[in-house]
Amino acid sequence: MTRIIMHGSSGRMGKVIAEMVSKNDNAEIVAGIDVFDDGKSDFPVFADPASCDVEADVIIDFSNAAAVDKLLDYAVSRSLPVVLCTTALGTETLDHMREASKEIAILKSANMSLGINTIISLLGDATKVLSPAGYDIEIVERHHNQKLDAPSGTAIALADAINEAADGQYEYIYDRSQKREKRDKKELGISAVRAGTIPGTHEIIFAGPDELIEIKHVAYSRSIFANGAINAALFLAGKSAGIYDMSDVIASY
Q1: DSSP-derived 3-state class of residue 225
Q2: Residues of the chain below pLDDT 70
Q3: What do you get for the CA distance between the two ends of the chain, in Å?
Q4: Catalytic residues, which ones?
Q5: In the β-sheet with 82-84, what is the strand arrangement from edge to edge?
Q6: In angstroms, what CA-CA distances link 219 with 62, 142, 224?
Q7: In what helix (H) or strand (E) does residue 50 lie, and over which residues does it extend?
Q8: I need a labelling partner for 153 at 20 to 30 A (CA). Which of 76, 87, 144, 203 fits?
Q9: Torsion angles phi and psi, residue 94, rounded to 5
């Protein structure tokens, strides 16, 4: 049984993960860390990492960027691996993460969905064939009107996978309204839509002469991210120090 500390246990994702773990025979949440505690958890919740002395095997973090540095210090002090799901981390925090990874295992991903991460691995193969053949590549992501950032971190991760496979040839274009000219072959357009209650949707378009290839992913609920985080935690427990990502989890299947 893998014992999990849930950092951000009172947040929306923390609650979804707790519910899913309660139905998992291979894992249990033994403690939560969150400045807010509604008293409804089946495990003790601590306001600060330093006060959490519960024995565990791994931490899942779904909190906010401001809380990550303190968590990394705590994880190193307890020699606990961390599944780091919080996004929009600053440069200093990323440097802190890399330093901490010399002592503990850290798995970081812009998106915890197994489906998205499988697509990321497929994009490398597609790009190596279609980019040299002159296909234009575009990414369109759609989300509900409450999402704050644009483009999404997932859209950037998809673009990075494409650009890595293309040896960094592409320039990311977020807005074409300020110029009147034909599309450059080395543009990678990234468009963001924010409206209504649209679920998280990402489309990758490869458009060539008389041919269109589309790869699409739709997230209908947060449970797909929770499931990915739980699988990542089960994978990471007991791993040696270093930085891991979801491709390592997928490869372990």
Answers
A1: helix
A2: none
A3: 19
A4: 143, 147
A5: 45-46, 27-33, 2-7, 58-61, 82-84, 105-108, 242-244
A6: 17, 10, 7
A7: none
A8: 76
A9: -65, -40
